[in-house]
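Journal club side-thread
Mid-discussion, someone asked how the predicted structure for our own chain would compare to the paper's figures. Pasting it here so we can look after the session.
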Amino acid sequence: MTTIERILGLKHFTGWHMLGVLFLFFGTIISVNLTLAYYANSSWTGLVVKNSYVESQRFNDVTAEKRRQAALGWSASTSYENGVFSLDLTDAEGIAIRDAVVTALIGHPVQDRNDKTVTLLAEGGARYAGDVMLESGIWNVDLSVTGPKGEVWTHSIRFLVKE
């Protein structure tokens, strides 16, 4: 009596038994792969830009714009509490940036179904805030700031909302 026959409790392990084992083995692997493929295809597409060639032609302009924004030296820190998303916006010397127009696009990192655009209003000092309901989890915020002198600054921050 072989080990397989002892494990399966069979008197004789025939070719039909082996065929059944093969179907179960490969059937499990194929069903898991199909399930994973379905969930991968029905969630985030992974598409970042519609046409990578066109975006590559803009590379130098985008890089120059990012360098200009980095030269401003602005920084932002975020917080979320009790349905209020807030942002502290300061310049290179740590001085509050006042009278700015601040828009925040808040969404999950891997899907765009729950994205919310919020206009943050000045609350005094460096603080800007807006009401938005967020579930617990990891979120991204894409900030778009137009400063008091017309400067444009964009910045992305990832933050965590705890229960």
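Post-session note: The mean pLDDT is 90.
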